[in-house]
Amino acid sequence: MEVSEYQNFAKEKLGFLFKDPSLLVTALTHRSYVNEHKSAHEHNERLEFLGDAVLELATSDFLYRNYEYPEGVMTALRAALVRTESIGEAGFLLGYEPLVRMSKGERQGSERAHEVIMADCFEAVIGAIYLDQGYEASREFIAKHILAKIDTILEEGSWRDPKSHVQELAQKIDGVTPVYRTLKEEGPDHDKVFTVGVYVGNSLIGTGSGHSKQEAQTEAAREGVKKYQKKKQ
User: Would you give the DSSP letter of residue 217?
Assistant: First the structure.
């Protein structure tokens, strides 16, 4: 893909041209592509590291200036705004996927793997914008694509710990404490993926997957919360 295509993307989706377009190309280059193409010298992990810090600062500053919640609540709100699912979704919506340089194997990976790659690219692009355009431009980008979600997060209560939230709802509505059961374990020991279900009585109310049982339980609980919220509507 030509550098001009990345610049066209920047102009259409980001609203500016990069002074150094190679920063955007690098931000959308996965490690697997460099391993497969020796002519490519740099992947996006250093930019991701930088972008993660800029994202955390911009989000923390926004929450501090606009809300007077206790520290624990602010930390939970920040985590909800910048979690992998949130920033991965933002990357998909911006149209990163066709521009991301990755190996054939990664391109054929799971939906969850692609979500993680999109999230990493989103952070890397923040790092690229910061280096190329400065903090204010990167802050505006974050405000538009991430901080704008705050009203929905507050309305849905998705900032709360999903396991605590689903337990509270299950006990209040059904008078039962939810339990978690491992439904599936896949993959080699060094890269195992667990699928867990959360049950209220005998009813499965949510499933989730992750590289640890804890992560899978959290995702299952998040689905369970959504199910209870749909009942209220």
Answer: H
